[in-house]
Amino acid sequence: MANRKSYAELHAEVSKRYPSGQTPGGVSVDDIVQLKLQNSYDTHLDIARDMAKVMREDMAAYDADPTLSTQSLGCWSGFHAQQMIKSVKRLRGTTKRAYVYLSGWMVAGLRNTWGHLPDQSMHEKTAVADLIREIYVSLRQADEVAMNDLFKDLHAARKAGDAAAEKKAIEAIDNFESHVVPIIADIDAGFGNEHATYLLAKELIQAGACCLQIENQVSDAKQCGHQDGKVTVPREDFIEKLRACRLALEELGVDEGVIVARTDSLGAGLTQKVPVSQEPGDLASEYIKWLDTEAISDANPVRDGELAIMLDGEFVKPKRLPNGLFPFKKGSGRARVVEDCIANLTQGGADMLWIETDTPNVAEIAGMVNEVREAVPNAKLVYNNSPSFNWTLNLRKQVRDEWIKEGKIAAGDYPEGNELMKAEFDASELGQEADARLQRFQHDISTQAGVFHNLITLPTFHLTAKSVDELSRGYFGDDKMLAYVKTVQREEIRRGISAVKHQHEVGSDLGDTFKEMVGGERALKAGGHANTMNQFAAE
User: Within its chain, how far is the Cα of 43 from the centroid?
Assistant: First the structure.
């Protein structure tokens, strides 16, 4: 809510138009002021413009102090996003440096009309924009509900003639912090060619997205970053899509919009085509040099239908799979990632990077980032703290390997492999050290590896599955109603989760207020003494 007017300023402005205190139709100036202040944004494009500035300020703060990183959780509904941000605000007293992540995986898996789909860009592209709109409707609705409560306090203070309480209520209204925060929106590989990418980017931006995350896979062969079979496009092709996103942001006036360029090259061993090099050292030649090739000889000639290219002064044959795809040299992924990142920042105009890794290892990521920063000193990352990692096993293996190398333990002190997952190691020294590293993982990766933003892509998918399972096991088992009360309602009440008053959460009090605005004493209200929500006390 950038440059939002204070209560006094807005009241004076509206009162100039209606010096009698109401419109000719009997609408009160006070009610007009309240609705104007409850309406946090006129359009979702305004949100995109405002949130881009928030992200840029946060990026600058991180450059000055890498402990000031940002976080988000992936949300597959507006309600998930709303409850996450309300929780952050309740915990911290502010929403600063908390974002929402919109995962293409969850749109594919949960939010498209074709049913549950894998993360292969098969879902309708409109579903992504629809979810962004839904998230911002939910966040704005949280503003409306909270602001309405503040105005109820103001009206109560005035009715009681309590000047101090009235002043306090107005201060709370003027200092109200919106639940609207930046969204990092996954546009997959662009859903088509560069023009298709541009058109979709515009839809996402108009829905409110200030930040687009796009990956360098082939759009029609797109795979989840944690699966095999990934195919990358030449760097020139990807840079054209980065430009398409930038043009969409600029056209719509989101001049400070943010683009996150994701590279899947670490796990992608294939490319769709061999780009044409125009001169030594250009993007195409730097891409081609990593192709897996074989020497041409009398015993291995170039046959009809095969390709030959000149590399390092001699003709060689790029290896080619039956499907026409070209494999890269084994073990070249890391070097390709570093080159991708530098090209995306210096020639593609990306603002941040996303490196999709196969394990959560701070040292590994820091090593790649340090190489990128030799060319781009302020390079910053968005990092996926992915549920596709077995975090417990990965961190325990890392601790075990380090301790063996340091001589702290012998190889036989702890088992290797999946045995380390056993609950018997939870309280062990190794298990506790692994958990301590998990607790500080985001801090370490932000301060040591240039990660500006830590996110978990699919947490609300897994949380929903776990929570519904937990409730179902009790409710359909022996505990019956006790299962709901113990696992859900008591915790809501004791933590101050406002959703315990579910009617209030979805706007019943808003409806009552509006009825009073237009009907006065004639208003038929839901929030009277017989409302069962009065049994609860929440935030």
Answer: 21
Q: What is the pLDDT of residues 86-124, one digit of tens each?
A: 999 999 999 999 999 999 999 999 998 888 887 777 788
Least confident of 63-72, 111-120, 345-354: 111-120
Pairing of strands 314-318, 309-311: antiparallel
Distance between CA atoms of 436 and 9, rounded to whole angstroms?
Answer: 50
Question: Amino acid identity of 171?
Answer: E
What residues form DSSP beta bridges with 327?
270
CB 27 within 8 A of CB 137: no
| Three-state secondary structure readout of 129-142 | HHHHHHHHHHHHHH
Angstrom distance (rounded) from CA 536 to CA 539: 10
Q: pLDDT tens for residues 225-275?
A: 444 568 999 999 999 999 999 999 999 999 999 999 999 999 889 998 999
Q: What tokens were used for 531?
A: 């409302």
Q: Identify the structural domains of the chain with CATH numbers, from first to last.
A: 39-139+179-278+330-460 (3.20.20.60), 291-327 (no CATH), 477-519 (no CATH)
Q: How far is the C-alpha of 381 from the C-alpha of 374, rounded, in Å? A: 15
DSSP tag of 329: P
Q: Is the dihedral of CA 284, 287, 292, 295 positive or negative?
A: positive
Name the β-bridge partners of 382. Answer: 453
341: annotated active-site residue: no
Residue set of the binding site: 186
Q: How confident is the model at residue 526 (pLDDT cuts 50, 70, 90)?
A: low
Amino acid occupying residue 178: S
Residue 70 has pLDDT above 60, yes or no: yes
| pLDDT tens, residue by residue, 283-302 | 999 999 999 999 998 899 99
What DSSP letter does each residue of 120-183 carry, written as one string? SS-S-THHHHHHHHHHHHHHHHHHHHHHHHHHHHHHHHHHHT-HHHHHHHHHHHHTPPPS---E
pLDDT of residue 514: 74
* Token pair in block for residue 385: 């703290």
- Catalytic annotation, pick one of 75, 224, 245, 341: 224
Query: Cα separation of 463 and 369, whole Å?
Result: 31
Q: For 342-358, what is the mean pLDDT?
A: 95
Specify the pLDDT at position 221: 62
The whole-angstrom distance between residue 75's C-alpha and the CA centroid of its chain comes to 8
Q: Are 98 and 70 in contact (CB under 8 A)?
A: yes
Query: Residue ranges for the binding site for Mg(2+)?
Result: 186
Q: Tokens 């056209």 map to which residue?
A: 251
